[in-house]
Amino acid sequence: MSKVWGPALLLVACLGAVLCDNQCENPKKDAQYSYEHVFSSARDKGVDFWDLPGYSRSVYAEDHALLTPESRVWAPNTYGWHNSMTAHLITPAKGPHFTMYLVQMKQDSKASQLDPKVERFVFVVEGNVQVKHDGKAIDLAANDYAYFPPGSNDTLTSAKGAGLCVFERVYSKKGKPAFQHGTTDDRPVLPVAPEVFVLRKLLPASDEFDFNIHVMDFEPGQYLYVKEIHYNQHGLLLLQGQGIYRLGNNWYPVQAGDAIWMPPFVLQWYAALGNQNSRYLLYKDTNLDPLLSP
């Protein structure tokens, strides 16, 4: 597919951007985003993937993976999640140093406390969850998030159900990161020139954190200026929109609900298409010495 369609997909991606030559205005900072397609079983209008026997857009290669909704395998009550379903998308089994998975919390569901060495980041895609931190109850809704540091005794429950994206890893530093929570659009927009996308980071950039979670917004026709190759690992969930993602020499049409694994040094590039803004959630390891860190 990549050799045949790569140049054609690049041409399609560029058509929407030619007029602005990557100088378009940044996506509107007050734009409204909907994540309804992440957990929905309904896909593009006129196309029902469930009626195509044997078909999947998912690809798992040595240097990247595209994991699409029709390939998710849901398991009940696993890995410390009670009255919940989990679908693991990225794990250390194939080389990453982190896990990324989706959780469907049902009514009266909860998560067990973590192994003391593990840290967890939870992003609420839909529904509501309740966190109890130092005896204080915190309500989180769609677009909210919470970070649980290693050794945390905090609890996570849902009375009415929720859909989550979760990142976990074994903490690799000697610091003491603190519990964090907030709302995505309350985070400051950071400078990214010469890029034109809107970037927010959901965790502090301070040295005690060994990863961060980025939220990146693109208007249709906008694309990454830098064709990135770097040592950092990524796990990505497309929350809204559609576009073309280049991974190595492969070019993939992607849409809301798709997840991507990017290991170190894979060539990566994104162009937003369609008629609505793209937004994706991105895990990135940070503040680590490339020589001493796996």
Protein traits:
single chain, about 290 residues, mainly beta, Jelly Rolls, seven-stranded antiparallel beta sheet, Cupin_2, signal
What's this model, at a glance?
This protein has helices at 2-18, 36-39; strands at 59-60, 65-67, 75-76, 81-90, 99-111, 118-133, 136-141, 144-148, 155-158, 162-170, 180-183, 198-201, 211-218, 234-240, 242-247, 250-255, 259-262, 268-273, 278-285.
Structure description:
- The structure is a single chain.
- The chain has helices at residues 2-18, 36-39, and strands at 59-60, 65-67, 75-76, 81-90, 99-111, 118-133, 136-141, 144-148, 155-158, 162-170, 180-183, 198-201, 211-218, 234-240, 242-247, 250-255, 259-262, 268-273, 278-285.
- The protein has 294 residues and is mostly beta strands.
- The strands form 3 sheets. Strands 3, 4, 5, 6, 7, 8, 9, 10 and 11 form a 9-stranded antiparallel beta sheet that branches. A 7-stranded antiparallel beta sheet has the order 1-2-17-14-19-13-12. It has a 3-stranded antiparallel beta sheet with strand order 16-15-18, with helices on one face.
- One of its GO terms (molecular function) is ureidoglycine aminohydrolase activity.
- InterPro entries: Cupin_2, RmlC-like_jellyroll, RmlC_Cupin_sf, UGHY, UGlyAH_cupin_C, UGlyAH_Cupin_dom.
- Residues 1-20 form the signal peptide.
- It holds the Pfam family Cupin_2.
